[in-house]
Amino acid sequence: MKSIVITGVSTGIGYDAAKVLVGRGWRVFGSVRQQADANRLQQEMGVGFTPLLFDVTDEMAIRTAVTHVQAALAGAGLTALVNNAGIAEPAPLMHMALADFRRHLEINVTGVLAVSQAFLPLLGAQKDWPHVPGRIINISSVSGRIAYPFMGAYAASKHALEALSDALRRELLLYGIDVILIEPGTVKTPIIGKFAEQVGRYMQTDYGAVLEPLAATVEKRERSALPVAQVTAVILKALESERPQTRYPLPRKKFTGWLLPRLLPDRWFDRLVAQQLKIGKRYKP
Question: To which H or E segment does residue 268 belong?
Answer without folding.
Answer: helix 266-276
